[in-house]
């Protein structure tokens, strides 16, 4: 149900690839809540995705941009303000990619060139995006920037590989930049640590289907869906959360604070 929570707000949404993407569902919900926004993704990702369909559905324009390239981010930010008719109120960073995961490299044998790419795409791109917004004074006061994270930033999940390191860096960048942007312009910067979610990126991780079933049984409320995450993002973009910043917010059905559940214990009982 729409409540006009984002009526009159302008945004940039990174990372919508297809209708499985959390960013895709955030765009749909932002549109329902009255926002206008620009969609963006790397040109190579756009060739694989269906972003034109989302743009038509939400009445949005698309600006291709590689989030690791500062010149392209400069163009994205300045063009977005021109298209939307003013400064930005919200930004979603929903970007993650690991060549080491794709190539099935073991963490102890990671290719360091790939490792650098993982960090740049999945984490440093947030710093570059925030720095570009900061430089252009592109955010309105009380604006909100969100990046999507995962609990592997704090705990070991062996097959998450170097993406765990990237998520740790991502959360640190959000805290550090959140401090500076809060002082400058009351802009909020947070990360949302989401349940394992069936997306194109998530399915590339070894053992993903088994783990998502385990997580479902380890979470008192069950796994949070992509649409539920989108709803949470909308609340974080709204004026209802104006004093939340520099936080890593777990959106995982209670998984992050659960040691064990009865269903999991019972799986290890005597036959």
Note the total helix count. 10
- CATH class membership: Alpha Beta
Strand content: 5-15%
Topology pattern, helix = H, strand = E: EHEHHEHEHHEHEHHEH
Mean pLDDT: 94
Stretches where pLDDT is under 50 for at least 5 consecutive residues are none
The proportion of residues forming helix, as a percent range, comes to 40-55%
Structural write-up:
By secondary structure, this protein is α/β, with parallel strands linked by helices. The chain has a single domain, classed as NAD(P)-binding Rossmann-like Domain (Rossmann fold). Helices cover 44% and strands 15% of the residues. The protein is built from ten helices and seven strands. It has helices spanning 22-32, 43-48, 51-58, 70-84, 99-102, 112-135, 163-185, 208-218, 226-237, 262-267; strands at 10-14, 36-40, 61-62, 88-93, 139-149, 188-194, 248-251. It has a seven-stranded parallel sheet, with helices on both faces. β5, α7 and β6 form a beta-alpha-beta unit. α1 runs parallel beside α3 (51-58). The mean pLDDT is 94.
Blueprint of the fold:
Elements: E1 10-14, H1 22-32, E2 36-40, H2 43-48, H3 51-58, E3 61-62, H4 70-84, E4 88-93, H5 99-102, H6 112-135, E5 139-149, H7 163-185, E6 188-194, H8 208-218, H9 226-237, E7 248-251, H10 262-267
Parallel strand pairs: 1-2, 1-4, 2-3, 4-5, 5-6, 6-7
């Amino acid at each position: 149900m729409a409540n006009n929570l984002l009526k009159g707000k302008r945004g940039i949404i990174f990372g919508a690839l297809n209708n499985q993407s959390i960013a895709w569902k955030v765009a749909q919900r932002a549109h329902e809540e009255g926002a206008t926004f620009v969609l963006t993704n790397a040109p190579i990702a756009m060739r694989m995705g269906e972003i034109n369909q989302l743009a038509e559905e939400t009445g949005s324009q698309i600006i291709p941009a590689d989030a690791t390239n500062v010149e392209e981010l400069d163009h994205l930010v300045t063009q977005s303000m021109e298209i939307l008719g003013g400064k930005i109120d919200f930004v979603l960073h929903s970007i993650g990619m690991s060549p080491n995961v794709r190539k099935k490299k073991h963490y102890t044998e990671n290719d360091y060139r790939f490792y650098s790419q993982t960090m740049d795409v999945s984490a440093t791109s947030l710093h570059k995006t925030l720095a570009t917004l900061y430089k252009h004074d592109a955010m309105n006061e009380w604006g909100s920037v969100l990046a999507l994270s995962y609990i592997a930033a704090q705990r070991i999940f062996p097959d998450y590989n170097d993406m765990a390191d990237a998520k740790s860096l991502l959360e640190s960048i959000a805290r550090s930049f959140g401090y500076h942007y809060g002082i400058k312009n009351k802009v909020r910067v947070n990360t949302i640590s989401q349940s394992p979610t069936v997306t194109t990126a998530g399915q590339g991780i070894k053992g993903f289907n088994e783990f998502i079933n385990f997580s479902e049984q380890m979470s008192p409320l069950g796994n949070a869906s992509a649409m539920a995450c989108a709803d949470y993002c909308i609340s974080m973009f709204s004026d209802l959360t104006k004093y939340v910043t520099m936080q890593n917010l777990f959106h995982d059905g209670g998984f992050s604070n659960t040691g064990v559940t009865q269903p999991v214990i019972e799986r290890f009982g005597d036959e």
